[in-house]
Amino acid sequence: MSASHLAESVTPAAGSVTPAAGRRSSPLLWYGGTVLVLALWLAVYIGLRPAADALTGFLPVARESRLGEALAFFLYDTPKVLMLLALVVFVMGVVQSFFSPEKTRAFLSGRREGAGNVMAAGLGILTPFCSCSAIPLFIGFVQAGIPLGVTFSFLIAAPMVNEVALGLLFGLVGWQVALLYLAFGLGVAIVSGWVIGRLHIESWLQDWVRELNATGGCCRVPEDEITGVERLREGLASMREIVGRVWLWILAGIAVGAGIHGYVPAELMARIMGAEAWWSVPAAIGLGIPMYSNAAGIIPVVEALLDKGAALGTTLAFMMSVLALSLPEIVILKKVLKGRLIAVFVAIVGTGILSVGFLFNVLFG
Amino acid sequence: MKDVKVLGPGCKRCETTEAMVRNAAERLGIDAKVQKVTDYAEIARYGVASTPGIVIDGKLVHAGGLPREEKLEEWLTA
């Protein structure tokens, strides 16, 4: 957007000079700059803890008090989460510049179920995806003859196991939990998609989608040659966009997390969300469906819950259901799926998440 | 007269893309009819799987994400 501003300030006399010319800087500058910024990022990140502690020390509340606990959490977590998010989104933006929904579609079309489900779930992480283009993507996949179950594996994995979720889990809760989330999130997407495929319920798509399917025939999407510097720029652009879009969610999430941290007694949490209470997993999922948040908002809450002794399985089930099953998404899907298919989708994914929750509580309870 | 279609449901990026196309056409002094296509079935007919997409004179030139300013000018002047 700043680019268009820049361009508008160019006088008509200089109209033949494209704004691109002024911005075409040398690759060396870009790569060097990237390394420099990353080093700076690391230095600031390491210094966050002492800085936040010092800052809390200046506040007129005792560090050990409830308010002190909550404030310390908030002051340390806010910059930490934002910095981690910026880094993760930048790196993934660069990685995702190698992928596109169109390329993924071409790759998946003609794959059989089974292997297709596995590849679709994996590509769901790597392909740039936003929920606002979920419908065109869904239609595009079906139109290209990708089996319904494989399409669903992609659609389940993409919002649930995304770079923001993994990056923040890694940074805030630890790599073990991030890895478990990755493995089981993919598992849920693969198995749910496969089951939906087995049901052979293509007739439960809205009629107009099936008619499109019958006409078939897709055009080729042009592919740009893209340089390393342009990939970096793509990473920067997605960083600006995503951080700009979700920072408020993060603040809200951290505020809730801080509240839990300071005010919710640990034994209460253990009783409600502990491994002993078997009903807590379905309850957490039921609670998660109507809640709509994105990964960035939910993870500070997850961190606080785990810290207070909530069981890992229950907490991850909660997170998965918030991300993978949300009411707004269901409303959007209604345009392409008949109600029955949506019910099946929610039931199958819900069951998958439920199993993950129980399994974790048994394994790590 | 260029016939430009911006493919995309109501998302923010699609609106930004439409504005970028209009600005670029005006800046370059190109006579262009810019149209927004929001109907899912029609979007699907162009074969894109990601929006926003840009179609110029019936030819798909871009899909997914915001177009780059310099590319946009290239397509419009082609």
Automatic annotation (TrEMBL), chain A:
Location of this chain's protein in the cell: Cell membrane
Pfam families, A to Z: ArsP_1
Main location per the UniProt record: membrane
Top-level division of the source organism's lineage: Bacteria
Keyword Metal-binding: no
TM segment ranges: 28-48, 81-99, 120-146, 152-172, 179-201, 246-266, 278-299, 311-332, 341-364
A GO CC annotation given for this chain: plasma membrane
Membrane topology: Multi-pass membrane protein
UniProt entry keywords in alphabetical sequence: Cell membrane, Membrane, Transmembrane, Transmembrane helix
Similarity remark: Belongs to the UPF0718 family.
PANTHER family the UniProt entry points to: PERMEASE RV2963-RELATED (PTHR42775:SF1)
Protein name: Permease
Origin species: Afifella marina DSM 2698
UniProtKB/TrEMBL annotation, chain B:
InterPro entries, A to Z: Thioredoxin-like_fold, Thioredoxin-like_sf, THIRX-like_proc
Classification lineage: Bacteria, Pseudomonadati, Pseudomonadota, Alphaproteobacteria, Hyphomicrobiales
Keyword Zinc-finger: no
Disulfide bond entries: C11-C14
Keyword Disulfide bond recorded: yes
Name used for this protein in its record: Small redox-active disulfide protein 2
Alphabetic keyword roster: Disulfide bond, Redox-active center
Domain Thioredoxin-like fold, first and last residues per copy: 3-77
Catalytic residues of the enzyme: C11 (nucleophile), C14 (nucleophile)
